[in-house]
TrEMBL record:
Signal peptide: none
Record bears the keyword Protease: no
PANTHER family: FLAVIN REDUCTASE, FMN REDUCTASE (NADH) RUTF
Alphabetical UniProt keywords: Oxidoreductase
Alphabetized InterPro entries for the sequence: Flavin_Rdtase-like_dom, NADH-dep_flavin_reductase, Split_barrel_FMN-bd
Residue ranges occupied by any Flavin reductase like domain in the UniProt entry: 10-150
Protein name: Flavin reductase (DIM6/NTAB) family NADH-FMN oxidoreductase RutF
Superkingdom of this protein's organism: Bacteria
UniProt xrefs under Pfam families: Flavin_Reduct (PF01613)
Amino acid sequence: MDGRTFRQAMGKFATGITVLTTEMAGEIHGMTANAFMSVSLDPKLILISIDKKANMLSKIRASNMFAVNVLAEEQQQYSMIFAGQLKEHEKVSFARLNGLPVLQDALLTLACQVYAEYEAGDHILFVGKVDELQMREGDPLLFYCGKYRSIKDWEEQLLV
């Protein structure tokens, strides 16, 4: 199978959307990612996956810290901004969690230290030790078959 077919097949798995953030020398860096999962409760560990060609890779390696921001359904613009899809946009303002920049009003923010790093094909897997978290109520922004979705989209389809 070719890479396009594999990518299309992986798009059949509905995911939430995160924005990964870190800071180096007073400069905030962010990247949209949907490769995120919980790994362990004791210790509290999560995993993110970053392409070896992504600029964010060197930023996380240098800072040894990152935050995961799980986006709410009304935060699609953040996903697009940090994926480089919106070139012109309002400046993003950040809050702080355990010293790391985080997106305001995300459903979940996790402040992490790099716990381990693994090479996996054309990606690097970072296991993060969660030091702090914040949560709020709301519905997640979803991604399925290359499109943004919401829980309400699926509820409406079920009623038809």
